[in-house]
Amino acid sequence: MVVQVVEVSPRDGLQNEPEILSTASKIELIRRCVEAGARRVEAVSFVRADRVPQMADAEAVMAAVPRRGDVSYIGLVLNRRGLDRALAAGVDEVNCVVVATETFSQRNQGASVDAMLGAWTDIAKAAHAAGVRASVTVAAAFGCPFEGDVSPATVGDLARRLVEGEPDEIALADTIGVGVPTQVRALVSAVTAAAPGVPLRAHFHDTRNTAVANALAAVEAGVTVLDASVGGIGGCPFAPAATGNVATEDLTYALHRSGHPTGLDPTKVIETAAWIGDQLGKDRLPGALGRAGWFPADPR
Amino acid sequence: MVVQVVEVSPRDGLQNEPEILSTASKIELIRRCVEAGARRVEAVSFVRADRVPQMADAEAVMAAVPRRGDVSYIGLVLNRRGLDRALAAGVDEVNCVVVATETFSQRNQGASVDAMLGAWTDIAKAAHAAGVRASVTVAAAFGCPFEGDVSPATVGDLARRLVEGEPDEIALADTIGVGVPTQVRALVSAVTAAAPGVPLRAHFHDTRNTAVANALAAVEAGVTVLDASVGGIGGCPFAPAATGNVATEDLTYALHRSGHPTGLDPTKVIETAAWIGDQLGKDRLPGALGRAGWFPADPR
């Protein structure tokens, strides 16, 4: 079964790095990811530049990404103002975030879960009216840094309410990297029941070394779209020394060796990881494949 | 289902670290692991001191480990001379290694697979005659650095021949960290068919970020004993910058959160990892839990 890997390093990765890259380097990162085979890229977010300075040049980045019919660029938006910017910048898809717990939603988004549900529906309808795909991520779906465990029933209830925006896709995000495969199965099952027919995407962080296990469990449960970040760049805002997004090269290795082609070229992904590591001044990336090498030696 | 974690840091971990610890520090490591809940410990190897200087003080270590009825100490042996030393030192179990591929066997053990099969049978019979348990590890069972892929049929054939030594346990080792869960299932199935009734143990390296996925797959396939090394110490002889043994704290997190108690105290395991990291002069350990913290915050 083919699995699509959505490259999120340009947005979720870079947004959580202390170093701010030049616009040219961001465009080069996206170009290299596409060259390595990425066909969906979370490229930018349209949020307040004073809150997220890493994404202040979203319009300039989108103006220069390689436009080709087979690559879809995703912009993160959280309100109508962001959506208007995203549409003007020519994104192919917008993605909105709704947090699974009230405390995290208030602290991270500055809004209640109900308010974000309303924003999502509003954004989705306007995006669809403009002919742009709209997906929604359920953040902290596997656990919350403030409220602890999150039950599959809670996520299922949320998914039921997300359906009002007619999502092209619902993404289940383990934002703080606490999930395990049993939870993946329970969550996929709960959300499938709550939002029948809506394609699912999964977004895993490797903060506690469970991301690859979770990703493979998600695929076995029928999820065919997974997020990842080259090199594993991005880190974890809740644990400064810890890992964030699962590395694209690690996920690619696990998928290819498990019989799931991704269309990605492992050599180019690993090279891109090394390149972005240099750009960010990192002497060590979370991704394991860059240190270990592919197996068998030639990935093709 | 309860899963037993065999702590291998004192042998497989330390043997692959450039720094040689004092005998007192090795004993302290073992004491701390037992205090954290380890009930089987791969404590030492009885091999040639000129080849493996890290293990030269095996007798002195074994003379000072905390002896208690509920803890079993394993000594690695590769020939009769090693067995005699192990028995004299009072180990509770011996473990022998047979490599799945000819090239790796010749290069690593300096002996053919056939020769090592003979050595295993000889060791096992003598150990059993002395009232000591004897287990055998199939090294490179998931892939070989020289020969590449290893088929489950190859490992099954080997397991069939290992039965002559009446193993108390067969351990399947991903020595270079290349396996994925589909392979785990195929291997467990092949070895169970080839050596019916022999309990299985699995030994995963996290070199390519698949160890936790493989461990959980092994447990789902019925394996109830897994090897791990606190902090993930040990490294990988085939890729100097890469990770070796899966970290005990990472495995414990994945198991506990998946509903598999281990008897280990996560806080003490993480403290022991930090302690051994200091002893080895490492500013960064492979284990993720020490950087990320348990979830939810209180592991008990």
TrEMBL record, chains A, B:
CDD domains reported in the protein's UniProt record: DRE_TIM_HMGL
Q: Which Gene3D superfamilies match?
A: Aldolase class I (3.20.20.70)
Determine if Coiled coil is one of this entry's keywords: no
Q: Which UniProt keywords apply?
A: Lyase, Metal-binding
In terms of superkingdom, the source organism counts as Bacteria
Entry's Gene Ontology molecular function annotations:
hydroxymethylglutaryl-CoA lyase activity; metal ion binding
Xref: InterPro entries: Aldolase_TIM, HMGL, PYR_CT
Q: Where is the Pyruvate carboxyltransferase domain?
A: 3-270
Into which family does the record put it?
A: Belongs to the HMG-CoA lyase family.
> Which residues does UniProt call coiled coil?
none
Q: Which PANTHER family match?
A: HYDROXYMETHYLGLUTARYL-COA LYASE
Protein name, per record? Hydroxymethylglutaryl-CoA lyase
Which is a GO BP term held by this UniProt record?
L-leucine catabolic process
Q: Name one Pfam family in it.
A: HMGL-like
- Origin species: Micromonospora craniellae
